[in-house]
Write a structure and sequence with these properties.
The protein has 742 residues and is of the alpha/beta class. 60% of the residues lie in helices and 7% in strands. The protein has 29 helices and 9 strands. A 9-stranded mixed β-sheet has the order 4-3-5-2-6-1-7-8-9, with helices on both faces. About 1% of the residues have low confidence.
Length: 742
């Protein structure tokens, strides 16, 4: 027959073989369901806000998400507890009771430890932190787990602030140190006692223990000598109730490894759960967490008063609190009524045993300080563990599994209801949008295509008429420059012109002076007439502006080019087509034709001007017989004669240039007409043009027809998002992913 230790080892091996990994997978799957449910519920809220269809709204509101998320959260918590429980390499026995009832005494009797490791004083809450005593061969080893700043604030300090409604809650240890707690006590004995713990223990003594906190955000385990254990687990107070020891305030848990007195124990750990009753706010939280994750069975300990003995409300409250976290408590709980030889309370113990109403596996009267009594209780608990704990845990796991299956089925109902709401609607709406687009784009007889075609035809006729007329912008520029030529004729309009010429003659000679001034006038006229480039640019800008106006106003394409206008619109629109729609070659070609349209002074006007400007060149003076010369300059030629000759040369050149330009005034209009014709041929009349436009507008239809199609596509997208969310939930809710029991 196998020993009890072997049976304990077998239980641990059986429940840790595959369940923890399987449960971790189920937790992830449940979290995926929770996320998918949240996504679907958010989509529903969006549809409820953005829809006015009464029938759709009624169907949406009818979907019952109910408490499914709360159930998932609860089951995740249970699975986490089960996974932690089944992952342990020990079976754990919790020991709990109000302060001063004999927990520490029982632990020492069972483990063989002494006051050095588990201090206990009569009538006082001495052990201040959770301790786990594990049976292990060899010498005693102690490991202390210290809070990090993060866990200390979250698990110890902030619960006080929340319970006592104190503001602001500290986010760092330095903030906690700087905060000034009010002198006035809260109303009520319980809150007053809790407030004293926060202020008098934790706040006022912070500098006495903060050096022990672990670096980083996670708690840290450190080995300490056995003789130093008491420094980290004991709370000492003076007669006024003020703390005399402080290290325990930074401790999260103490783990002690030692060989138990009982030789047939095996992988068993005793969990000392901090006693309640001293108003430490964190005790109940620690107790609940410990019961849920770290305990398999629990021993309740109570020591009755020999004179006033009866079950008190605090006893039943403690039982009820434990029942919240430890499932099937009646199948996991033992009651030990502590018989104190010193107080002589045996009669009171028997009376309590006879009147016990709390459901437990067994209730015994025992002297916790007597190792023989203690081990008798221990044997009973160990035998029960070995025989029954696996069955109890499997039943708990089975109940969880059944609840998970119910959650899966309820999610299926939500999925089915959600799918039926828009069943087929997406396809119907897609057809509506396509039909609407076809109607809006139209044909040669109606719609967008007819409107844009007519608009460009009219533009073509307009430019054809303009091609028979001079360019207004160039004509205006020419007239402006003629005026400038009269107002600014260099030496001819300067003050004291002849005096200036005379000085030049003196500096050189009459021939050089005449030649130099002719060069100056030629350069001046070249500068004046180069300003005609602005007039030519205005001609091309006007053509581009008219094309852009049609595309923006008739074609409704303004939003596609960031609401730009004129030539800037054409450039932006062309670049967008080339970048985002490279397959639309005909549109690209047509837009490049109009966008690249330029008329330059260098190419069109400058050659016509310079054939007359060369008459003012000095080179002509070398062969005076070749052409008529205004003035034959000699050594005695006067400044007056040179001035008059320069005036004649200047006026004659300006007149000749003016005559030449009058013949060019029609060229910008002709060029614009030719470019417009070529542009329209490519984007309207080419056999690929209509097909490219139809492809392009289909892709951007929601921006072009915001009211007619944009709103429909938004509705379609909302419906698609809804269906995607439904499909996501359906995909996440496969039953096989939440089955962890074989």
């Amino acid at each position: 027959m196998s020993s009890r230790a072997e049976r304990v080892a077998s239980i641990i091996e059986r429940r840790s073989r595959y369940l923890p990994d399987k449960m971790a997978t189920v937790e992830r799957e449940l979290q995926a369901r929770a996320s998918a449910l949240y996504n679907l519920e958010s989509r529903r809220e969006t549809l409820l806000k953005e829809n006015t269809n009464p029938k759709l709204l009624a169907h949406l509101e009818a979907i019952d998400f109910g408490d499914i998320q709360d159930r998932i959260r609860a089951e995740l918590f249970i699975l986490s507890k089960l996974r932690n429980r089944f992952s342990r390499d020990t079976l754990n026995i919790g020991v709990m009771g109000l302060m001063g009832q004999g927990k520490s005494t029982l632990l020492k009797s069972l483990s063989g430890l002494t006051d050095q490791e588990i201090p206990a004083y009569e009538g006082a809450a001495c052990t201040a932190v959770r301790s786990v005593v594990t049976n292990r061969e060899g010498s005693i080893e102690v490991k202390v787990v210290f809070h990090s700043e993060k866990t200390f604030l979250e698990e110890v300090i902030r619960p006080y602030y929340k319970s006592l409604c104190l503001q602001p809650e500290p986010s760092t240890l330095d903030e906690f140190a700087r905060l000034v707690l009010p002198d006035q006590m809260p109303v009520g004995a319980t809150d007053e006692a809790a407030y004293k713990h926060l202020r008098n223990d934790y706040h006022q003594n912070l500098e006495n223990y903060r050096h022990l906190f672990a670096a980083g955000t996670e708690p840290q385990e450190r080995s300490i000598p056995v003789e130093n254990v008491v420094e980290y687990v004991r709370q000492e107070r003076n007669t006024q109730g003020d703390l005399l020891s402080f290290n325990h305030l930074a401790v999260r848990e103490v783990n002690i490894f030692c060989p138990f007195k009982n030789s047939d124990v095996g992988k068993i750990a005793l969990v000392d759960i901090p006693g309640l009753g001293d108003s430490k706010l964190g005790d109940e939280t620690i107790m609940l967490e410990t019961l849920g994750k770290a305990v398999d069975v629990v021993i309740f300990i109570t020591r009755p008063d020999p004179q006033r003995y009866q079950w008190r409300k605090v006893d039943t409250d403690l039982y009820d609190i434990a029942a919240q976290e430890l499932n099937n408590l009646e199948g996991r709980a033992f009651m030990v009524i502590n018989h104190s030889q010193r107080t002589g309370n045996f009669r009171a113990c028997e009376a309590l045993k006879d009147t016990l109403q709390m459901q437990v596996v067994g209730c015994e009267v025992a002297d916790c300080s007597n190792p023989e009594d203690a081990n008798k209780i221990f044997d009973s608990v160990l035998n029960y563990l070995a025989e029954h704990i696996l069955k109890i845990d499997e039943e708990y796991a089975r109940q969880s599994q059944e609840r998970l299956i119910k959650i899966q089925k309820d999610i299926d109902l939500i999925t089915q209801a959600a799918k039926e709401i828009l069943w087929g609607a997406d396809g119907d709406l897609a057809r509506v949008i396509d039909d609407q687009y076809d109607d809006l784009f139209g044909t040669d007889q109606d719609g967008w295509w007819r409107e844009i075609t007519i608009a460009f035809q009219e533009l073509r006729f307009e430019f054809a008429k303009q091609s028979q007329q001079s360019s207004p912008s160039l004509e205006t520029s020419v007239e402006t420059i003629y005026r400038i030529c009269k107002e600014d004729a260099g030496i001819l309009t300067a003050n004291n012109s002849e005096s200036e010429i005379q000085e030049q003659i003196k500096a050189s000679n009459p021939m050089k002076a005449y030649a130099d001034y002719r060069d100056q006038l030629r350069t001046l006229l070249s500068d004046h007439f180069s300003c005609l480039d602005e007039g030519l640019k205005e001609s091309t800008e006007q053509a581009k502006r008219q094309v852009a106006d049609i595309l923006i106003n008739i074609g409704r394409l303004g939003l596609l080019a960031n609401s730009s206008e004129g030539a800037e619109f054409l450039k932006t629109f062309r670049e967008m087509i080339e970048r985002e729609h490279p397959d639309l070659k005909r549109l690209q070609q047509g837009l490049r034709i109009i966008d690249s349209f330029e008329l330059s002074y260098d190419g069109l006007i400058e050659p016509q001007i310079y054939q007359h400007l060369v008459d003012l060149s000095n080179i002509q003076l070398e062969d005076e017989g070749a052409k008529d010369v205004t003035l034959k300059v000699g050594q005695h030629t006067t400044a007056e004669l040179i001035f008059n000759a320069l005036q004649i040369d200047y006026d004659r050149t300006v007149s000749r240039i003016k005559a030449a330009l009058e013949e060019l005034l029609y060229q910008p209009s002709i060029a614009a007409y030719a470019r417009i014709e070529k542009f329209i041929d490519n984007i309207i009349y080419h056999k690929e043009a209509q097909k490219d436009w139809k492809k392009f507008l289909r892709r951007v239809r929601s921006k072009v027809w915001t009211e007619e199609i944009g709103n429909l596509e938004k509705e379609q997208q909302r419906q698609q998002d809804w269906l995607n969310s439904v499909n996501r939930l359906e995909g996440a809710n496969r039953v096989e992913t939440i089955q962890f029991l074989r």
